Hints:
Elements: E1 21-23, H1 24-29, E2 37-39, E3 44-47, E4 60-63, E5 67-70, H2 78-82, H3 88-96
Antiparallel strand pairs: 1-3, 2-3, 4-5
This protein binds iron/sulfur cluster (2 copies).
Amino acid sequence: MPDDASACLNCGACCAHFRVSFPYLEAAARNLPESDLVPVSPHLVCFNGTQSHPVRCTHLDGTVGHQVSCRIYHQRPHPCREVSPGDDQCRKARAAHGLTWPPS
Length: 104
Ligand code: SF4
Ligand code: SF4
């Protein structure tokens, strides 16, 4: 879920489609609780809930495609910030949840 995107508040598809992995050092720098992290490699972790199907980040609140929020919005790591509404990743995630772009 990126910055300042009103469409995202009614979506959350990217939080329920991709594995959200990032360096352990980033998790530590952002003060993310270790209990929410799953090891991916010696240096990478991912958010619990995004390592297997059906994917749903442990930090996502609400119902995908209706109303959602991120419980750690200000601490979220770089993969969450990189997807932009309407970009390829966004469209792929939305399509997987039966959501078109632009939102109807
Ligand atoms: S899939 Fe797109 S619209 Fe939906 S939350 Fe992610 S960036 Fe926002
Ligand atoms: S941390 Fe927040 S923005 Fe990132 S995937 Fe999880 S719910 Fe989405």
